[in-house]
Amino acid sequence: MSNFDTNASAVLATEERSNFVNPPSATWLRNMAPIASAAADNAGSAQTTDAAPGEPAPLSPVVASTPFAAPTDAPRTLSLHAGAVSGLAPSPATTHSDTALSGALVKTAPAAAAADRAICSFPHGLSFEGTAEFPCDISVNGSIKGSVILKEQSQLVISETGAIDGTIRARNVLVQGSVKGELDASGGTVAFGEAATCTGSIKYARMSMAEGAEVEATMKKVA
Amino acid sequence: MNNTVSIATASAPATVGAAMRMIKPASFADATTVVPKGAKLDGAMTADTDLALRFEGTFKGKVVLNEKGAIHVGEGAVIEVEALQADVIYIQGTVKGNVHARKSLEIGAGARIKGDIRYDEHFDVHNGARINGSINGPEGDAN
User: Fold this and answer.
1) Can you give the residue ranges of every domain in chain A?
2) Å from A27 to nearest chain B CA?
3) CB-nearest partner of B38 from A121, A124, A135
4) What is the pTM of this model?
5) Is B45 on the interface with A (CB under 8 A)?
């Protein structure tokens, strides 16, 4: 598995570069990184500084008309790209490096650039039962039963200690913990980390899954 | 300008986020904003570990921090609870319901509280706060 670690830095490099060419494509997962690493639970405000460029890929038909022509230094990961596999990826911006990126981020969640996106978080040890609506990105480290709804374009990270049992609606979802129930990321991206478990149903437009993720769900692609 | 005017302004709602004067800032040093501005939560929140939570949005239900814990209800927050319970509670927003601070309770200037208040050790109210309900502290001369 040390492969992954070495790859991770390469990925970051790739990402930095591709950022210049294609801001939206690399961004959402990149933005997820700080969320994931913000398990420090230190979110003062709900403002997302980065909201506009942080929007996911559909905006960017510019680059990557050849999804599989990966750069030579692109790392290989074992993650599955559902969109690419089905050949129906709605956005050509979904490049190989994006896929790889998700795999790597899911694994290592680099601590770099931690603060460029303010998010709020739901700390470990806290449990909530009911309905929750958030206007911002959120990282869930505790457990939630019920429904979690994020405003459009927002990102939800369920960390390794996080668990959500119920309904989730968010544009982009990164699952490293456990999800039971209905995960609705219609038009957005769902990424599963290697420790993720998920049962229920999933709606997504793009998906990535790390090796080891346990996903038993009905999946439906909804652009 | 006569005196009545200044009295009137003094009792007018203060929106200023006056800092805590009794509760130590350390209580909220690593506070997590679980309900940010614009968020709406409805349900029961419980924790059995020591956590510091901040509320800035709308919450309805119940917040019970069993193990120590600190709760900050920020300005602009609207909390409607059957119970709001922690060791340390600092209220600057609007709270409807019963509040129980097992140690310190501080009520900021802009706070609006409707409900019964209980504190077991320390209590402080800033000028400008409005409270409707009963207040119960520790009995006797202890402390």
Assistant:
1) 1-46+58-223
2) 23
3) A135
4) 0.65
5) yes
Q: Where are the alpha helices (DSSP H) in A48-95?
A: 82-86
From the CA of B54, how many Å to the nearest CA of chain A? 9
How do residues B73-93 score in pLDDT, each as one tens digit? 999 999 999 999 999 999 999
- CA pair distance A162, A178, nearest whole angstrom: 6
Residue range A112-137, pLDDT digits in tens:
333 334 468 899 999 999 999 999 89
Cα(A173)–Cα(A183) distance, integer angstroms: 9
Give the mutation candidate from A41, A42, A45, A126 for the B interface (greatest B CB count, under 10 A): A126
Q: How many residues does chain B have?
A: 143
**What is the interface pTM, i.e. ipTM, of the complex?**
0.79
- B18 to chain A, any CB pair closer than 8 A? The answer is no
Residue A56 above 90 pLDDT? Answer: no
Relative to beta strand A126-134, strand A214-221 is unpaired
CB-CB neighbors (< 8 A) of B32 in chain A: 41-43, 120-123
